[in-house]
Amino acid sequence: MRILTWPLPILFVIAFPASGRRQSRQSEPPCENPLVRQEWRELSLEGRLDFIAAVKCLQVRPGETSVAFSGVRSRYDDFVALHISQADYVHWVVSIALISILDGTGLFCGCLNKPFGTNVHTEVPYHWTQDAFDEISILESPVFDPVYGLGGNGDFIADINLFPEERKTEVDVPGRTGGGCLADGPFAGVNASMGPGNHTEYTPRCIRRDISPSLMVRALGAEQLASVLNASSYFELEHRTEGLALGVEGISVHGGGHFGIGGILGDMSNTWSSTVDPIFWLHHGSIDRMWDIWQRADWANRKTDIGGPDTQWAYPYNYFGDKAYKNITLDFEMDLGEIGGSVKIRDIMDAQGKYLCYTYS
Ligand SMILES: [Cu+2]
């Protein structure tokens, strides 16, 4: 069975909530000293190494959910497994909203024994538009740096027929340039424990990237970003973020990061297990930031504007025919599993509210 990976849900994210949330709760009410989420390039070189070290720290700490998910070996795997297990249920369920739960500060800091408030947190946004002018600039993005970044592409694999269907995306991503295991950077040689795809069995394997610079330039540029931020409603915001058509031509800012980095053979393209590639968090930081900017441009109206289907492939993503669905409301409860429990959408609408406490630089 091939993996159906388009369009990806913006919010299939759910990881690292618990510790950050607890930290946020300590400061409520109100949120007086929000953590400032700096862009990757705004972090000092030391700060970037801290982020990398925190991920590696979680990758060697023992996992806590291996009873529920047999593939879990590390603390990092806890979140990979949660994401895999929930992806089918949070597809388009409030889309962007769930992302804002991802405040992992406590967890990242804690693993490195650093105090809360240092910029060692999960959702470091990466501003793709600063590089998405041309293909060379994208490939030279600081986030792909082998030392002060998360490493670059996999080696080019020309013949994708060497791989079984379940290892490829359904979408025929144009302009792919890699496909091999990470060739450099801090996660080269690090094994993912689960995936690819919708299972949590222990299947150790390398992390792959298959970057399509042309897709990244097309989907992550200033024009796309402006279109998203000009949305007049949450419904429109989500739709423009996810894309307005099925297939490559519809890929927008969310799919642009996933398919642009994951290509056909890479992990970022996988709906369920994309979290095995730590660049996932930086991409989703940028998506959450867009939502935050959009909200604050008209806070009075947008602080409570939410919507979208509670069912995968339902309107407005009903490319395969109409499906019954309910529209998400503020009272919708997101299930964050053993790690985060149940969270109502209304409690995370404000990144500086009673539940979350962060802002973007
Ligand atoms: Cu995503």
Written description of the protein model:
With 361 residues, this protein is mainly α. It has a single domain, classed as di-copper center containing domain from catechol oxidase. Helix content is 32%, strand content 6%. It has helices spanning 17-26, 45-60, 75-90, 105-111, 135-139, 213-219, 222-229, 234-242, 253-262, 279-296, 299-302, 337-340; strands spanning 35-37, 154-156, 179-182, 191-192, 205-206, 333-335, 342-344, 358-360. Residues 1-28 and 92-100 have low confidence and may be disordered. Copper (II) ion binds at residues 8, 10, 12, 254, 258, 284.
Q: Helices and strands: which structural class?
A: mainly alpha
- Mean pLDDT across the residues is 83
Helix share of residues? 25-40%
Number of strands: 8
CATH class: Mainly Alpha
CATH architecture: Orthogonal Bundle
